[in-house]
C-alpha cells in the first residue's frame, strides 16, 4: 500500500507556515522593488523624449527668429526706396512693436483665462 508517512505535527505545520509567510514577504518586496525600477525606467525614457522634443522646438524657434529678422530687414530695405532710412527704420520698428504688443496681449488674456476660470 502506501509506505509514505505524513508528519502532521503542529511544529512542522508552524514551520511550514512561517516559511510560506517569509517567502510571501520576500516575493512581495521583490515585486515592489521591480515595479519601482520599472517606473523609474519609464520616467527616464519619457524624459529623453521630452528633452529631444524641447531641443527640436528651441532649434525651430531660433531659426524662426532669424527668418523674422531677415523679413524685417527686407521690409526696411523696401521702405528706403520710398522714404529716408531713418523713417523706414522707425516704421519697421513701430510695426514690429505693434505686432509684438498684440501677441503679448493675446497671450496675457489666455493665461488670465486659464488661471482664473470660474
Notable traits:
single chain, 118 residues, mainly alpha, 2 domains, 86% helix, rod-shaped
What features would you describe in this structure?
This protein folds into two domains: 10-64; 80-118. Helices cover 86% and strands 0% of the residues. The protein has two helices and no strands. It has helices spanning 10-79, 85-115. Helix 1 runs antiparallel to helix 2. The protein is rod-shaped. The model has no long low-confidence stretch (mean pLDDT 85).
Quick summary:
The protein has 118 residues and is mainly alpha-helical. It has helices at 10-79, 85-115.
Number of domains: 2
Shape: rod-shaped
Instruction: Give the DSSP E fraction (strand runs of 2 or more residues).
Output: under 5%
Biggest pleated-sheet summary: none
Amino acid at each position: 500500500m502506501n509506505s509514505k508517512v505524513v508528519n502532521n505535527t503542529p511544529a512542522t505545520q508552524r514551520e511550514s507556515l512561517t516559511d510560506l509567510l517569509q517567502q510571501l514577504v520576500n516575493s512581495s518586496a521583490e515585486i515592489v522593488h521591480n515595479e519601482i525600477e520599472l517606473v523609474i525606467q519609464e520616467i527616464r525614457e519619457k524624459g529623453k523624449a521630452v528633452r529631444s522634443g524641447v531641443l527640436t522646438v528651441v532649434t525651430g524657434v531660433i531659426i524662426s527668429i532669424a527668418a523674422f529678422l531677415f523679413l524685417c530687414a527686407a521690409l526696411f530695405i523696401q521702405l528706403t526706396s520710398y522714404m529716408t532710412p531713418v523713417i523706414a527704420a522707425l516704421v519697421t520698428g513701430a510695426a514690429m512693436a505693434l505686432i509684438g504688443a498684440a501677441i503679448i496681449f493675446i497671450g496675457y488674456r489666455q493665461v488670465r483665462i486659464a488661471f482664473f476660470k470660474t
